[in-house]
Amino acid sequence: MRFELNRLASRSNEDLYERFNVSPKLIPDGPLTLPQFHKHSKVHSTTLRNRFGGWRQALVAAGIGNRYNTTFAPLTREKIIANMRQAAAALGKRTLTKKELYRSSTSCARAIAREFCFLGEALKAAGLGKDILSARVHR
Description:
Blueprint: H1 13-26, H2 34-40, H3 45-52, H4 55-61, H5 77-91, H6 98-104, H7 109-116, H8 119-125, H9 132-137
Helix pairs in contact: 3-4
C-alpha cells in the first residue's frame, strides 16, 4: 500500500495551479461543479475562492473558465423582470401571486428578495399590478 499525502505541502500559486489543473482532467467535459472538484482534488475550493476571488475567477486563472457552471449564476434584475413578465404572459394574467410566480418562473425567491426586498416591489418594477394578498400583507 502506497502512502499519499491528503494535502498539499505548499500553497503557492504554482502548486495550486498544478493541482487544480489535474482535477478537471479527471472529470468528463462539461461544467466543473464543486462536488466533482472536491472528489478529485487535494485543495479545497474555499482555498481557491479565497486566493482568486471566486470560483469563476479560479477556473479562469487555471485556464478552464469555459467549464464554469452558469446554471446557478445570480440572476440580474433585468432577467428577473423578464422572467416575471414571461410567467404572467404564460398564465394570461396582469399580476402574479407568490405561488404562481415561483411555479411558473425561473426566478427564485432568494433572487427576488436580493434585488427587490419585497414581491410587491418586483411586480411594480415588472409593470405588473400587486395581487390583493400582497397588498394586505404589506399595509
